[in-house]
Each structure stands twice: as C-alpha cells, then as structure tokens.
Specification:
The chain is of the alpha/beta class. The chain is built from six helices and five strands.
C-alpha cells in the first residue's frame, strides 16, 4: 500500500471516493479506513504504526468539525500527512480548516482545500506527487495528467472565446 486514507466517519465517504478514484487513475495503491482521533484513538495509533510497517508512503486524513485526526496522525508518524478539512457542522468547516492547518511547529500537516471533492482530489494529487518522487511510472502518469489539464483549458478557451 502506498497511501493510507483515514476518514473520520462514514459520512465522509463522498470525499473518500474522490480520493480513491484519483489514486486509482495513477495506479497508486491505497487502504481506506474509518477511524477517529476522539472516539477510537488507540485504533488510530495502531493503524498508523501498521501503515509504517506495511510500507505506506503518505497518509491522507479527512475530518470535519474539530478535525484533530490529521494532527494526531502527524504526531504519531514520520510519514507525510495530508489533511483534508471537511465542510460540516455549524461553522461550515472553518473549525476543521483551522484545526488542520494551524499545527504547532514540529508537527507538520500539509493542508488542502476546504470542502469535499476539491479537497479530496487535491489531497490525492499531493500524495501522488510525493510518490512520483521515487516512482517513474507514477511520475509519467502525472506529467500526462498535467498535459490533459492544460488541453482542457485550451479547449474551453476555443469554445467560449470570441476571436476578433
């Protein structure tokens, strides 16, 4: 497994599916688990230790509300941790964003877009970029993806622009 994905609850599965589909596009292996920094802290610690032993290269953590999952995982691991703050609850994700991005010095968490699909996709793409540092096949797929992105913008420009 290259990437371990943690969802704070089953209600986060829409984001999990976005992460999974993005990783699969690049042929990156993963394991998706539901675990909570608050409700199942020992399980979370155990999963983090097992990930390191099983060769995981990156951990992606998705959580809303107080969103301590990414920070807890970063405190327990030497692996890169990517936090995906989710828009939920009465603060619409601002609490999750602040909890994920505002880590103390020495416990880094790379934080991506607040929300669901964009955050999940960006979290997965950041993991893919990390893996591409040592995997030439993944790096080539990432290059091809970036070309596809540029071509889609050019196609939209041709479709919607008015040429004089």
């Amino acid at each position: 497994m290259d990437v371990l994905i943690f969802l704070g609850s089953a209600s986060d599965m829409e984001v999990g599916e976005e992460i999974v589909s993005t990783l699969e596009r690049f042929g990156v292996s993963y394991d998706l688990r539901i675990t909570s920094a608050h409700r199942t802290p020992e399980k979370t610690r155990s999963l983090v230790r097992a990930a390191e032993e099983n060769g995981a290269k990156v951990i992606i953590c998705c959580a809303g509300l107080s969103a301590h999952l990414a920070g807890m995982v970063a405190a327990e691991s030497l692996l890169p941790v990517i936090g995906v703050p989710l828009a939920a609850g009465p603060l619409h994700g601002w609490d999750a964003l602040m909890s994920t991005v505002n880590m103390p010095g020495g416990v880094p968490v790379a934080t991506v877009s607040l929300g669901s699909k964009a955050g999940g996709k960006n979290g997965a793409l950041l993991a893919v970029r990390i893996i591409a540092l040592t995997d030439r096949i993944v790096a080539e797929k990432l290059r091809e993806y970036k070309v596809e992105l540029a071509l889609s913008v050019e196609e939209s420009d041709r479709k919607f622009s008015k040429h004089s």
